[in-house]
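FAQ: What does the model actually see?

It sees only this:
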Amino acid sequence: MNSKKQISLILQQDINQNKIGKLQPAKRQKDQNHLQRRQQQRAINNDMIKITLLYGRKHYNKGAIIFTLTDRTLSKTPYFPFKDVLRGLRVVCLNGLPNPQILTAYWHTHTKHNLKNSKKRPLLTSF
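And it is asked to produce this:
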């Protein structure tokens, strides 16, 4: 069974899932299906977006609410075994829970590859 299917099965049993209402894409005049197209291009499904909204770190930027999944935020969740799949996922919303209007979703490359870079750094030793 692939990881996306396993993630969706765990999400179905998650007690926090009822905190999220219906996922609504924010309607833009110029681009009506922006979110759906970006999800398809970036291999992001709705279950991954729900996990990001539930457990992601929340911060604000220029009137938007941004949720980001990191290893730290996933550490005490049932999704920790899938941290390599979910790490770095960002969801940009106009408003927060319970009925978020989602602008876009993407992989934040710095967060996604941060673990690889931290292993390459030499350890500081004192003499």
